[in-house]
Amino acid sequence: MPQAPTFTTSRQEIAGVSVPSLAAEFGTPTYVYDAAKIVERINDLASFDVVRYAQKACSNLAILKLVREQGVMVDAVSAWEIRRALAAGFDKHGDPPPIVYTADIFDREALELCIEHGLHVNCGSPDMIRQLGEAAPGSEITLRINPGFGHGHSQKTNTGGQQSKHGIWHEQLGNCLLLADANNLSVTGLHMHIGSGTDLDHLSQVCDSMEKAALEVGRSIKTISAGGGLPIPYNSGQTYVDLDKYFELWDATRKRLEESFGHKISLEIEPGRYLAAEAGYLIAEIRAVKEMGTNLFYVGDAGFNNLARPIMYGAYHPISIARQDGQELEPSNEVIVGGPLCESGDIFTQEEGGFVSARKLPPATIGDLLVIECAGAYGYCMSSNYNSKPLAAEVLVEDGKARLIRRRQTFEGFIADEMI
Ligand code: LLP
């Protein structure tokens, strides 16, 4: 388990590359990812048989290729996530399946792709079982079970319980097994994901529900997936969950099932944030420093079009300053950090239920850089073109070298699909 980080308010480099030089070479706003950190996080999870990356967290092809080369498999939640996985070189078939389609519905394109490529499907609704049964009888499937409870870092990221639309309600498992049988599908896997960024207690409760569900399904089960949801520390003082303890609980569950069934059960985990969050930094240039009554604002060129988590969930992201003069000054200013959008909520320093809050940061001026940290997961992939702002560039740093992995969106690309 990694050491809990302490965040500072000055950062002159990312993975050995100077932040001002990154901004000078690639412009701002730009997402920068530290490849070594992703690999480190993958290795933390080595006890699990399969680490299946929830690519929704950060699906750049270069990142997908990087995790694939580390032996990680991938989850896809949409037709184009399937196509991304294929484009990044994941095989279609294998044991365990390299790509799993996990969703609550099949849109028509996703169903066609799953059939065309014979992909393994994790069904999150009885309707998916019916539709797959009609199109591809004889397939092996996983069922995503909603165990009746959930927990996330915010109500919006809680994916279990009666208020959640996700998965198959646990009390309907029996009916779904009959449905699978009637459609000539074999249930070989079970999956539960109760929410993103939750705590160890809630994560561990899933083990009991999984054991109960697996016993109900019986000997056809070959794989159980603990889902994702592993939290990461976003602020000094927060810690990681005890991964050893987490694994032990799952391993014990798996062993009991192996004893009951008399065969091996593969144990999967499906993290998104844990692999990508801390590796990613959003760099923005400060373009205005202004006072509003007693409040001081640093206004940069990245907004919630680039990183939506603060406005969506009141999520906290550490922010540090890279001054162009290289000085690392004391955090002596109380600052509100905002972006360029024509909307008052375009503030990075806000908290859940709150609107704006100030943060102690070093003095800075125009041209200095904001480094918004722990932004690798649900950062770029949730960005938009609001206010006709271009999508940011993405850069990967490997072995001290930075390379562009997605060029900044161009105006021509931005309007290419529009017709007058
Ligand atoms: N597996 C399934 C089926 C999921 O729905 C998710 C996340 C994951 C795995 C990965 O969860 P993670 O390990 O990253 O917590 N936009 C929100 C997070 C929404 C996640 C939705 N599902 C955020 O920025 O916090």
From TrEMBL:
Domain Orn/DAP/Arg decarboxylase 2 N-terminal: 50-277
Active site: 342
Cofactor(s) in the UniProt record: pyridoxal 5'-phosphate
Highest taxon listed in the record's lineage: Bacteria
Modified residues (N6-(pyridoxal phosphate)lysine): 56
An example molecular function term from Gene Ontology annotations: diaminopimelate decarboxylase activity
Pfam families listed in its UniProt record: Orn_Arg_deC_N, Orn_DAP_Arg_deC
Family matches, as Gene3D superfamilies: Alanine racemase, Lyase, Ornithine Decarboxylase, Chain A, domain 1
Binding-site list for pyridoxal 5'-phosphate: 229, 270-273, 378
Keyword Transmembrane helix: no
Pathway field: Amino-acid biosynthesis; L-lysine biosynthesis via DAP pathway; L-lysine from DL-2,6-diaminopimelate: step 1/1
Listed InterPro entries: Ala_racemase/Decarboxylase_C, DAP_deCOOHase_LysA, De-COase2_C, De-COase2_CS, De-COase2_N, De-COase2_pyr-phos_BS, Orn/DAP/Arg_de-COase, PLP-binding_barrel
Record carries keyword Amino-acid biosynthesis: yes
Subunit and partners: Homodimer.
Protein name, per record: Diaminopimelate decarboxylase
